[in-house]
Amino acid sequence: MRRGIIFIMLLSLLMSGCGAKNEPSTLKVAAAADLTLAFQEIGKRFEAKTGTPVVFSFGSTGQLAEQIKNGAPFDVFAAANVQAIDELKKEHLILEGTEHVYAFGRIGIAAKSDISVRTLNDLLKENVKKIAIANPDHAPYGLAAKQALQKAGIWEQVKNKLVYGKNIADTLAYVESGNAEAGIVALSLVKTSDVHFQLINEAMHEPIQQAVAVMKATKHREAAKQFVAFLNSSEGREIMKKYGFSIPKEQ
What does the record give under GO molecular function (predicted)? Predict the structure, then answer.
């Protein structure tokens, strides 16, 4: 009787172990907030193709990079600028050879339909009382917005109107909710929004080079590499282009 119970227990443990082994590991991807719409679609396609579920943590590039430095268990980091990846590389936190620029982002002026804002100079209008931009201290899209305002020669004039979003998705929410009459946001996020949007000339700011890398501490190295490969595949690139990103020529 006792031997029979032990045998059943061992068999149960063996079966549960086999089940866990066959169960796909969930991939944790830290991604800049401008990627929210594009990566949600990419994640679904990737899971359908590979069977590997993907969980995204969207936020500002600077804050996500800090989380990684503090030991956050991400498998992949898709940043909104190449500098964040370079910094993590210097600290030996990324898997050598996996880092590269995967896309270029664009910014533009967003405003509710009842506010006539088409150019940067329109932000000086009296009826534009609040202008939302992502915090330039840790959000690449916020830094690009600041550079554009400086190049237009109106930074000092609009400084008192500015409200800072913690990331670029938060910034768009300010405009959509009416808490800001206008904002400078990512092209990639306005596809499903009802705001009026006007692109800003790329010459007004430094290129928004978005870089990705597999984290050195990942326990799912092959799945992480597969995700990055899918991002760079023709299918992945088409999704990125659909949301307004341009792809580096060498890709």
Answer: metal ion binding; molybdate ion binding; tungstate binding
Nearest to 106 by CA among 21, 177, 191, 31: 191
Mean pLDDT of 26-33: 97
Indicate whether this model's pTM tops 0.85. yes
- φ, ψ (nearest 5 deg) of residue 104: -120, 135
Residue 218 assigned as binding residue: no
Mean pLDDT of 127-148: 97
Contact call for residues 60 and 135 (beta carbons, < 8 A)? yes
Q: How far apart are CA 213 and CA 210, in angstroms?
A: 11
- For the chain, give the mean pLDDT: 91
How many other C-beta atoms can be found within 10 angstroms of the C-beta atom of residue 219? 11
Closest CA to 213 of 55, 39, 81: 81
Distance from C-alpha of 220 to C-alpha of 227, rounded to nearest angstrom: 11
Structural domain boundaries in the chain:
25-104+208-242, 105-204
Which H or E run contains 160? none
Q: Is 61 known to sit in a ligand binding site?
A: yes
Contact 113, 124 (CB under 8 A): no
Is residue 189 predicted with pLDDT exceeding 50?
yes
Task: Provide the CATH topology of domain 105-204.
Answer: D-Maltodextrin-Binding Protein; domain 2 (3.40.190)
Domains 25-104+208-242 and 105-204 share a fold: yes
Spelled out in words, what is the top-level CATH class assigned to the domain 25-104+208-242? alpha beta
Residue with tokens 């119970």: 5
Task: Please report, for residues 70, 76, 209, 236, the alpha-carbon distance to residue 46 in angstroms, rounded to integers and kept in the order given.
Answer: 28, 14, 23, 9
